[in-house]
Each structure stands twice: as C-alpha cells, then as structure tokens.
Amino acid sequence: MSLYSEIGGDAAVNAAVDIFYRKVLKDDRIKRFFDDVDMEKQAAKQKAFLTMAFGGPNNYTGLDMRKGHEHLVKRGLNDSHFDAVVEDLAATLKELKVSDKLIAQVAALCETTRKDVLGK
Amino acid sequence: MAKVTYGGQSYECGSNSVLDCLITHGISVPSSCHSGLCQSCLMRAVKGTVPEKAKAGLKPTLAAQNYFMSCSCYPEQDIEVVLPDSGMGKLAAKVTKVEFLNDDILGIRLKPSRPFEYRAGQFISLYKDETTARCYSLASVPDLSEELFLNVRRVPGGLVSGWLFAKLRAGDEVTISEATGDCFYVPGNPDQNILLIATGCGLAPLYGIVRDALLHNHQGKLSLFHGSNDKNGFYLVKELRRLEQTHANFSYVPCISDGESPAGYASGMVLDVALAEYPDLSNWRVFLCGNPEMVKAAKKQTFFAGASMSEIHVDPFQSAYSTGIC
Predict the structure, then answer these.
(1) Distances (CA, A) of B205 to A24, B268, B303
(2) Contact B150, B136 (CB under 8 A)
(3) What's the Cα-to-Cα distance from B148 to each of B3, B140, B205, rounded to whole Å?
(4) Residue B300 has pLDDT above 90, yes or no
(5) pLDDT higher than threshold 80 for residue A16
(6) What does the alpha-carbon distance between residue B87 and residue A76 come to, in Å, rounded to a whole number?
(7) Exposure pattern of A49-88 as b/e (b: 16+ CB <10 Å)?
(8) Using CB atoms and an 8 Å cut-off, which of residues 9-68 of chain B contact chain A?
(9) What is the distance in angstroms between the Cα of A106 and the nearest Cα belonging to chain B?
(10) How far, in Å, CA of A60 to CA of B32, rounded?
(11) Which H or E element spans position B11?
C-alpha cells in the first residue's frame, strides 16, 4: 500500500490543508514569507504541496521547486525555515492522529526537495 | 473526438488535456503543478460541459461559473473555453432611479437593454466613456427585481463617481459590462451559518447576497455586521431592520468605530465586534467586503477563528477600492 493511500489520500489532504496553513501563518519563524501573498491562491498551492509530501500523484520537478522558491531564497529562505515547515506539517498530522511511522515517511519525502527548494 | 475552441480556433483534443492541447498549439496558458491542484491553469467553459473531475477542489462559486482546471480536463464533448480575465461584453442600460442613500453614497437603479444574467454580489463596470470605467457591486437580486442596484461612494476627485453624483439622472442611458466575480451565494448547505462583514459601500454586494440567501430559504444564521466611523455612514438601515423582523435567522449589527454608540448600534471596529460575538467560525461561510485593510485582516482572523479557506469569500476588487474607485 502506498504512503498516499495509507495516509488517507485526497481526503487527508483536504483535512490537513486548513490546519497546516493556519499553523504556517501563525508561525513566527516563517510567517513573514506569507505576508503579501494572496491567501486563497496560496491555500491551493499548499494543497499541491501536501499531496506531494504525502506521496500522492504530482508532476513537480526539481526545476519547478527551484523556480517557485527563488524569490524567497533571495529574501533569506534557509534551512531553519525549511525545518519549521516540516515541523508544522508533522504537528498537523499528529493532530489528525496519523501514526509516527507515517509522519516520519512524510518528513523523509519533504527532505528530498530541500536542496531544490533552497536553491543549493 | 472532442474539439476545444479557443479564441475562435478549434483544435482536436485527442487524449490530451485542454492545457496540453492549447500549449501544443502555441497558446500561452499559465500552469504549474499539472496535477489538478494548484489552480494556476484555471479557465472557464463558455460552451459545452466540462467533466466533474476538472472542477474537483474548486471553490463552489468558481465551479458554479464553469471554471475548471485545464490540466485535468479531458473533454468528452466539444467545448469552448476562455482565460479567466478575458474581456467581457458591453451593453446599454437605462437609468430608472437615482437617490442619495446617505450623504456620500448614491443609489443607482438601471434597467439593462437586454436579458442580463448575474448573481447578487457580482460586479459590473460602468463606463463614463470608452476608456474610463469603474467597477460596482450589484446589490440587487435577479429574482426580486428587473433593475440592477448599485451603491456608489463619492470619491474626492473621482472621475466616475464625480460624474455620477453631478450629472446622472433618471432616463439617462449608460454603458455597462456583463457581470463577473465570485463573491456570491451558492445554494446548498442551507443550515450552514453565514457571517457577513462590510465597511462603507462594501455593504452593496452583501445586501444582495443576504436577500439571495433568504430567497433560497437559507435556514442557518445570516449575521451581517456593517462598520462605519459614525452614524452618518450607514445606509439601507430601514430595509435591513425590516428584513430582521421578517426573518428570524437574519441579524444586522451596525458598528460605530469612533465615539459613542446610540441604542441599536454596537461600539467598536466591525471585525472585533463580529469576532467577539462569534469567536468560533468552524464550518461557517464568510463574506467580506469593503476597506481593503479591514478585508485583509478579516480574511486572516476569520480563518484563524476556524473558517475554512474555501468558505471565505472576498470582495474581488479590493485594489480598485483602495485607489478610490469604489
């Protein structure tokens, strides 16, 4: 069984997106990166991100990741911010009663994008 | 084989998505995730039916207007599509009534020269001349009146509002655009509570939306909060009070932000008053219109209070408002 279906698929993404985005917007470490974005468009992007992090169907490439975060890297996006996002995601899943084992798999999947997201 | 028509040209779609089909033919459509999630590739079908899958996860107000994600749209029948911001048709309308709703807001009633489709809360452009137009929300409800109802605020030095306040008379003919925007009531979920917050003439779309919801027999709470600096800033008060008397689930709270509040008025910033009364907005639907600073703060605060992002609807032309266009 794939991680995505084990975690609950599309329904899990929908359940997680509001909770996760609330955490991110309230997180003093990273909220400044979201100050001037359109919240609604951003929520749709969060959904795409969660689908990817849950191992679901996606077509993001490393290059997409680089381009999509370039402007944030210029504003100082670094490892500590990346860690904060992964932490918020883990806390979201914990709230949704996802097992630690699956949370670790999600975190590992996020980890594979770190270099591209941070433009390294 | 289904064909996709765009910009007057038809293309065989084959087994491709609408997005891939158009891109193959050199048409530039914004896109990002290619997985039916990020909504960057949003388009609108003006003819034909789009498979449900291409609308999965869209806001109900967008789906109701035939918006879809072109990356996950594999049409089963011929469709004609446009990009979301493609130009809209114009038409003539006759001014049937002009009245002052308060010292600074003009109520204008218009009768379109041809059948006119819209939803209460959407907006139109009103043209002063070929190149000068402003957007105004529709406070009217299609099923209640043949006339469109606009609320225009007097903007110091405003080109269009200045002209309307000085010159517009019943009997005049004006040019308007077709209606657009996704700030409106979608029937369904009749027991859901609805919070509506406005400042100034942001009341216009909400006055339409409230009456549209009541007309659809909405049973959940409809709680409208209208903010102003002082008592003179309110309008449609009598109409809203009357609505309160005839519909037990509707409440209207005018909020005065500066100084004393007489009986029947709440005291404080409109957003604070609303959130103090309803601190938990889980499963609520929310409509926000008016001052862009208020709207921006309210979007965040109502989201933090538990409203889902997909249930928060916002006056679509905030930037126009902030540049004094309202």
Answers:
(1) 31, 23, 21
(2) yes
(3) 37, 6, 12
(4) yes
(5) yes
(6) 39
(7) bbbbbbbbebebeeebbbebbeebeeeebeeebbebbbeb
(8) 32-35, 37-39, 57, 59
(9) 19
(10) 8
(11) strand B9-12
Torsions phi, psi of A20, nearest 5?
Answer: -65, -45
> What element of type H or E holds B252?
strand B250-256
Could you tell me where the beta strands, DSSP code E, fall in B105-216? 105-112, 123-129, 132-137, 148-153, 173-177, 194-199
DSSP classification of residue B55: G
Q: Would you call A58 and B312 a contact, using CB atoms and an 8 Å cutoff?
A: no
Task: Copy the structure tokens of residue B9.
Answer: 């040209």
User: Which residues of chain A have a Cβ shorter than 8 Å from any chain B Cβ?
Assistant: 14, 17-18, 21-22, 25-26, 39-41, 43-45, 47-48, 51, 57-60, 64, 68
pLDDT confidence band for A103 (50 / 70 / 90): very high
Substitution target from A4, A13, A14, A18 for chain B, most B beta carbons within 10 A: A18
Q: What is the nearest CA distance from B137 to chain A, expressed in angstroms? A: 21
Mean pLDDT, rounded, for B221-229: 96
Query: DSSP secondary-structure letter at B18?
Result: H
